[in-house]
Write a structure and sequence with these properties.
homodimer; 655 residues; mainly alpha; Transcription Regulator spoIIAA; 3 domains; six-stranded mixed sheet; two-stranded antiparallel sheet; 26 helices; 58% helix
């Protein structure tokens, strides 16, 4: 008996009992199909639960440790900083310092702009770049992610909140609802992590996310036309048709040429900086520093020329000082509680999807491990704490994380550095932003969100999978032409439709023998494969469950019908054996066994023998338990298709 | 090149182009993995749609037919009676007549009782056994199904309607809502059939249905204690706790001994008849005729003794005459429209599940074909017409269908016969039911619903699949201890949870070589299988999609980690090749390819080569399109695991 590694979850007991194996190899070339040893029911159940919720085996390091050590490991697993902090040194700090300063210079102007996307006052953007990154630095396990407000979540939150409360009429209620939503976004994230339901975010397909992000980027960029063109009256809708109508209807007397000059000039500058950074990877700091330079230059320019008197819209006074408490602002009762909860769940899930994707990307790049569920707890805690300190929903920003990584960060300390810079900004220099023109913020946002449009990814999706492409485009057009919510709904629906398709319509294929081998392969893929006269070999490519059992039965009968029709037309001998290759059938349930029984019954009426090849461990066990093996006969179950054919072929009667 | 049968949907074009096949077999024993010929995009798309929605190829018979013939086939496919009616003869009619009379005798007392379950007056039960079976006989394709009101749907409809309107206070509105729900149940069924969404009902797992039915049977039986014990004041709740409280609290002065004597006597008679029918299959007509005999005897007895004066509750006057029109009673506006719609959708889906299961069972038994989607249109039409003629939701009754089949029915004419008998009953003899004691109806319902409790099926589910058993018990206890709606919700949720589990946590296994073969199998199933030193072979048992791609990547890395740890402890040579057996991987999407790229990257860092064995047609095509084959090298992709091992093993460096 071969060795079985000791720590494989579902099958730990396997090594213990060899007597129960029912393996006999009587003929020298034929191994019989083995039935795996019966497992203890409770053990089987816990193994299944473990594989589902603890697939990454998070408690592994606790094994065989004394209690005191367990306690320390426990604390360290909640606050990873305690672990990596011990190996922290000056070299690492140098890297983190530079990276932190770079992302701070990038985030400060972005924060002010993104707060506007969420219909909040500018300081709330800055607040959100102070507390949450600090919390994350202590609890998070990603070394490269840069935490703070991001464009898509700001837009989504703004759109969802605006449906409930008008931010212009009831700014206080609006802000309170925003904190409520942030609170529940955090709670949602913590809960998903705590109950190990992190896999739920995997249900949003990559393609749908790409489309959604690109659509959101276009929508955000369009929204910035307001600031860039100096338009005063602007639609609240986010779809492209309403926005373009708003833009064109104001072309004669709503646009402000001074604003346009400032905005377009600096937009050109920012895009040029971006281009330079892209061309020469060593100059990555050029686009990173460009937004802050633009802000300083344009603010100085407006202040000197007093352009605000010529209708150039400026940011205005930003509240000075560190985050005030917002504990009492959260709605814990009333109708807004439910609304805040709903919005929070949606925003929290999307924020998670983005953050986890970023964390995973950089972890793969630098080859370290990310624990998805632990990460969720960190992100959730950071949002809960944020909601109590006047922050709105934050997550990982892809562009800033990339800059962080390229600037040479080593650990999450770069987030702490950024946080400190934002603190200093809040305490000291917010008044200086008074004369910053809105047009500059618009330019910065436009140049930032353009990075969310990933044309290469879309091209690849088109090349690889057309159905994914439809999902991608559906989400994209949903966002651009209708609204963010509809786009999101389309993305989720298409993702689910794909899953449902996968489980209801599994593939089946007819196999043929490759010449001069004992290998049987799909005859549509291998045109050289030949059929065995009198035998039809069908492979089923999925577990047989209630959701597809009827389809599989009917599909196999249709393969048979087609084959029989062809043979009849060509006067060839009729089919006498139907071999079902079960290798890919990993599991079967009661409905599946009923379907097989039905298939057996139908075949018997046509005088055809049902033969099974290579049923897996779970399947053979259930076929035995349900007595199906006796129904068709133990001798009809073979280890390989080749064995089955070798045994069946000589018995074929010549017509 | 082998022959490909001409009518296989997704792959029709395969035979046309052999030049594009990239198959070379240079080494004599190694076939290369083939890339299937590129398919026209539109063709691929239509093939996919066809396989999803038209898996049964319903338009096949229309092919290559002149227009006039197509028209006739079209009419016949809507009204199958036009086809089978042409071969109808006297022998068949004799069988159908006897079967029809038998099921009529069974359905009349049941109808009156079931109408009460739905909180409707008795005549509505009879109405529902007149029009719908007639409509079905013309449009349906099942030969054995017996149409009419059934216990579970009556209970479900009653419970759902009662939540909206109290039938005692507003009987008219209640009835109108019942017709509205019936109308939308029919519309739902027609739509599901028309848009070929019939597979949606497959999402209710067999196990959940078994549990739900058993729970509903217990609930219905408990409800009948009211009639059986002659209790006047009875709870409206259906859970076992409320009902038993109701029963015990009335034990001293609420029970009526005369009623109990009548009820229990006839219940014993009915159960005895059932037992006789079960013991001797030839006496199947005994239990079929027993209910009518009970009704006649007990009615006569009550009439003679005027037991109704001794507080024996009787049915009372039943409206005489044929179904009145209810077109104007349906709510087409107002708040009840939405409520009726919601209830209708739920009741319609459950009714479909039951009818299709019955139709399929008997079709398999007698070996004829049922077109699920066409069947749905027939059932839906029958309910829409029913809702306009004072009927409530009807479907196929399992017990009556079984009797129908055993009585020797040949075609749906037995439904017409039954329908005519019910018509005569409505026109002539309803007044005779006035003195029928309610206790008899209770006895009849109890003896009927006991058949819904399928202990054998539950035992089998327990033996085969523990997860299915949990689903079954969840639905059962939900119905019995809470309510029908909650039980249904549990059944649906557990079914979906199972599907989600299936797609997020596919199985993976480590393979080993069976001695003296070139066959590689799961080492946990085949303890004789041995590992190849320096090589780890992992099989992935599912399509790699966004929902599981991360899990699969992490799981493979965990297999590798476990293996490496073991090898290190035992001072064995390290792993140098990781072979992923892709046979069961039927498809891959962009997320899946990203996961493979990530896997390749991680392996490279550990100086391990990634090798793929036997990728299927869809997979190899996408691996090529995404350039992944070039990334790992074309020479790393093999036709079989055996080929891969033969090529890799000699290259392994000895540590």
């Amino acid at each position: 008996m071969s060795r079985v590694s000791g720590d494989v979850g579902a099958q730990e007991t396997v090594t213990t009992d060899t007597a129960s194996f029912q393996c006999h190899s009587e003929a020298p070339y034929i191994h019989k199909v083995c039935i795996p040893p019966k497992q203890n029911l409770l053990h089987e159940f816990t193994a299944r639960v473990k594989e589902t919720f603890f697939a990454d085996d998070p408690l592994r390091q606790f094994k065989d440790q004394p209690w005191s050590r367990k306690f320390i490991i426990g604390i360290q697993s909640v606050f990873p900083i305690l672990e990596w902090g011990r190996h922290y040194n000056l070299t690492k700090f140098k890297g983190d310092l530079i990276a932190g300063l770079t992302i701070a210079s990038l985030c400060i102007p972005q924060d002010i702009g993104y707060a506007k996307l969420a219909n909040l006052a500018p300081q709330y953007g800055l607040y959100s770049s102070f507390v949450p990154p600090l919390v994350y630095a202590f609890m998070g396990s990603s070394r490269d992610i840069a935490i703070g407000p991001v464009a898509v979540i700001s837009l989504l939150l703004g759109a969802l909140l605006q449906d409930e409360i008008d931010p212009d009429i009831h700014p206080l209620e609006y802000r309170r609802l925003a904190f409520t939503a942030t609170f529940f976004a955090g709670i949602t994230q913590v809960m998903l992590g705590f109950f190990r339901l992190g896999f739920l975010i995997d249900f949003l397909s990559h393609a749908a996310v790409v489309g959604f992000m690109a659509g959101a980027a276009i929508t955000i960029a369009l929204q910035q036309l307001k600031g860039l063109l100096g338009i005063k009256k602007f639609t609240k809708n986010t779809d492209i048709v309403s926005v373009m109508q708003s833009v064109w209807s104001t072309v004669n007397h709503g646009w402000n040429w001074q604003t346009i000059v400032i905005g377009v000039t600096f937009l050109a500058f920012l895009l040029l900086a971006k281009y330079i950074g892209k061309k020469n990877r060593k100059l990555f700091w050029v686009p990173a520093i460009a937004p802050l330079i633009s802000v300083i230059l344009s603010t100085f320019f407006v202040y000197i020329t007093r352009a605000d008197k010529h209708n150039v819209a400026i940011v205005g006074k930003i509240e000075k000082g560190v985050n005030p408490s917002s504990v009492k602002e959260i709605f814990f009762t009333g109708t807004y509680l439910a609304k805040g909860f709903k919005i929070g769940v949606v925003a929290g899930m999307i924020a998670l999807t983005e953050a986890i994707a970023i964390a995973r990307t950089f972890a793969t790049l630098k080859d370290y491990q990310i624990d998805g569920n632990k990460e969720m707890i960190a992100l959730g805690t950071m949002n809960v704490v944020g909601s109590l300190t006047s922050c709105y929903v934050t997550t990982g920003s892809f562009s800033r994380s990339a800059v962080n990584c390229m600037s040479g960060c080593y650990t999450a300390v770069s987030n702490i550095v950024m946080s400190c810079v934002v603190l200093l900004t809040l305490e000291l220099i917010t008044p200086l932003f008074k004369y910053t023109p809105n047009a500059i913020l618009a330019s910065i946002i436009i140049s930032a969100v353009l990075g969310l449009i990933d044309i290469e990814a879309v091209k690849l999706i088109w090349k690889i999978d057309k159905f994914d492409f439809v999902a991608c485009m559906g989400a994209f057009f949903g966002v651009v032409f209708v609204s963010v919510e509809i786009g999101l709904l389309i993305a989720v629906s298409i993702s689910f439709a794909k899953i449902l398709l996968q489980v209801t319509r599994p593939r089946t294929s007819v196999l043929g023998k490759l010449p001069r081998t004992t290998v049987y392969r799909n005859i549509l893929q291998y045109p050289g494969a030949t059929k065995v006269p009198g035998v039809l070999i069908v492979r089923v490519d999925s577990a047989i469950y209630f959701s597809n059992s009827n389809y599989i039965r009917e599909r196999i009968m249709r393969w048979l019908g087609d084959e029989e029709e062809y043979l009849k037309e060509n006067n060839q001998p009729r089919i006498q054996y139907l071999i079902v290759e079960m290798s890919p059938v990993t599991d079967i349930d009661t409905s599946g066994i009923h379907a097989l029984e039905g298939l057996h019954g139908s075949l018997q009426k046509r005088d055809i023998q049902l033969v099974l090849a290579n049923p897996g461990p779970a399947v053979i066990e259930k076929l035995h338990a349900s007595n199906f093996t006796n129904l068709i006969g133990e001798d009809k179950i073979f280890l390989t298709v080749s064995d089955a054919v070798v045994t069946c072929a000589p018995k074929i009667e010549q017509a």
